[in-house]
Amino acid sequence: MKRIALVEDEALLREELARMLQKAGYEISQIVDFEGVAGQLLFLAPDLVVLDLNLPGESGFGICRQLKCKSAIPVLVLTSRDQMRDELQALELGADEYLTKPCRKERLLARISNVLKRYEGRPNLLEGRGFLLDRQTYTLYLQNRSVVLPQNQGKLLETFLGKGEGIVTREELCMALWGTCEFIDENALQVNLTRLKKTMSALGMEQRILPVRGVGYRLAPGEEKE
């Protein structure tokens, strides 16, 4: 059963939406505390967020931005704001759909179904600090843009993400790149690591690759020193 989180401060409308979506076969979570909404949503990790823009505290725009920088959770904006500039801003921040209230039940259900179908093939996404990596295409998603990495850089980053911020040995990196540890020139590994480091730096990524003396390398927060 797909899980939908509702971010709507009008209690009656929220309850109405919850009943409708439950009847349609979805499991529903309702956000009722509007402090730290993005953090709550990241913890819930729903299959879809239905998000209002006019909220107490932080606006839906800010919540959408935070979600899209830190996760691949799809967002459907449902709002009374019907200005084109609001729709364009939401879409630029990564929203997947934009509907205005009042909205016919059939239209809302159809848009929800379409968004969920688009995301069904997304378990291949690996998450780092402020970015996502598609392990099939080595597409990097960050700051509302996407960049396709060269294959070797993608393989290296995938290997690092598989360990979180743990240590990745030289042998593991060689296996990821060439499928063997034999007859590999250390310089060849260094060349590929340097290219990935330069790419990450140029993109302003929060994490960087640090050496672990005598063992290998690891991803570390950007503020951490060698």
Structure description:
Helix 1 (11-23) links the parallel strand 1 (3-7) and strand 2. Helix 2 crosses helix 3, helix 6 (151-162) crosses helix 7 (170-178) and helix 6 (151-162) crosses helix 8. The protein contains eight helices and twelve strands. With 226 residues, the protein is of the alpha/beta class. The longest helix has 17 residues, at 186-202. A five-stranded parallel β-sheet has the order 2-1-3-4-5, with helices on both faces. The chain has helices spanning 11-23, 37-44, 60-70, 84-92, 105-118, 151-162, 170-178, 186-202, and strands at 3-7, 27-31, 48-51, 75-79, 97-100, 125-128, 131-134, 139-142, 145-148, 167-169, 207-212, 216-221. The mean pLDDT is 89.
